[in-house]
Amino acid sequence: MKPSTHTAKERDQNFERYRHQKASRKEQEPDRSKKRGCIPPIVGE
Question: Region (Disordered): which ranges (predicted)?
Answer without folding.
Answer: 1-45
